[in-house]
Amino acid sequence: MSVTRRQILAGLAGVSVLGLGAGGARYWLGRPEEAKTHDYELIAAPLDVELVPGRKTSVWAYGGQAPGLELRARQGDWLRVRFVNRLPEPSTIHWHGIRLPLEMDGVPYLSQLPVLPGESFDYRFRVPDAGSFWYHPHTASGEQLGRGLVGPLIVEEREPTGFRHERTLSLKSWHVDGQGVFGEFSVLREAARGGTPGRLSTVNGQASPTLELPAGQVVRLRILNLDNTLTYRLNLPGAEARVYALDGNPVAPRPLGREYLLGPGMRIELGLRVPALGTALPLRNGPLRLATLKSVDSGEAAADWPAALPANPVPEPDLAAATSLGFNFEWVGALSGNMEQGGAFKFWQINGQAWDINDKRCAERPIATLQQGRSYIFELRNVSQYLHPIHLHGMAFKVLDSNRRKIDPYFTDTYLLGRNETARIALVADNPGVWMFHCHVIDHMETGLMAAIEVA
Ligand SMILES: [Cu+2]
């Protein structure tokens, strides 16, 4: 049994689910009759966990874990998740990066009504692309994601890849004090800047854990940034690591280099050649250690670098025939005057329009309407000093170029737009509906930096 399979089983123990193993084989856990209607019963509920040693933190968990239960499906198959809300407030689940029909996208009042406490909702959709994705609410995001409602969704390739071992590393910082007590998820002065950071950094819910990896093997590390705010400056000094995929889409394998900026919502898949037995490598955010990767005996012959992962069936935009649209991401720079009426603060806007999270009808005013089947080029212009990981629902896009860095064009669902950067992305508008287009710094999204794009 591989390291991966053991971990999956350990992670699922005691939870009532039907899952897919790393090799694609189905196995049973829990009550078989439930499998007729869904693959997973995913319960969101309060849970006490120990984030700070000796202290209890009351988080909100998916499937009894925070970050949530790792969901797995096989490319091209259906994923059926019964979401059960045992939280004290309404919620939904959005499946970040999955190309699916609008009614499964989890956006309140657009895809579905919020799922009330005590209610459930069945999500059912096919997963067209293999890769590392994640799920989270699209309601009261600052608090709900902040309390722990974030989880990995791994879509396995249909055929075995060259990787025999893999690990998922979910990065999240928590807005807790030294006693493990939650403070504010959003502070106004921070929302108007880079967003409110958590103070306690964790990997898979543990502060600075030691992760054991098989010596001599090339391990697929799926690193997911599930944080509300932080852009991690990922680095693995002393390691032999290659990039295999970015945000759910394969790239031609290349050395990791000195560091990689992983913004909120973004993912990177690395091949890591695990060094000789007993070696410890730091995984770092800039100079800060996030985790220690320790090599342990695998009992297997040393492995070579796997081949590139197979490309996903994302439609190639027709650049010659594409229509260009410009999107400016700006700071509003004013405290809104409508606080007395219960309005939201607005610090950010796209093309002069700030999204109001309290206005259920914002989606009825799309910022752009795309003709179904046509190709488009978006020019994204960041007219601010802060980083904005720009995410589009419903469709993957191809990053073409940037005025600030050299780009090898690649497909993604989230692009980290640097300060004063202009980048061009392209897509085929092949998925009808009204799709959220927003910054994944949750503070930015909740104070204006969100819009709707219609495909009709
Ligand atoms: Cu932003």
Automatic annotation (TrEMBL):
Name of this protein: Multicopper oxidase family protein
Entries under SUPFAM superfamilies matching the protein: Cupredoxins (SSF49503)
Lineage of origin: Bacteria, Pseudomonadati, Pseudomonadota, Gammaproteobacteria, Pseudomonadales
Keyword Nucleotide-binding on entry: no
Domain Plastocyanin-like: 53-159, 351-455
Any one Pfam family match given in the protein's UniProt record, by short name: Cu-oxidase_3
Keywords: Metal-binding, Oxidoreductase
CDD domains with a match to the protein in the record: CuRO_1_CumA_like
Alphabetized PANTHER family for the sequence: MULTI-COPPER OXIDASE, MULTICOPPER OXIDASE LPR1
Stored InterPro entries: Cu-oxidase-like_N, Cu-oxidase_C, Cu-oxidase_fam, Cu_oxidase_Cu_BS, Cupredoxin, TAT_signal
Stored Gene3D superfamilies: Cupredoxins - blue copper proteins (2.60.40.420)
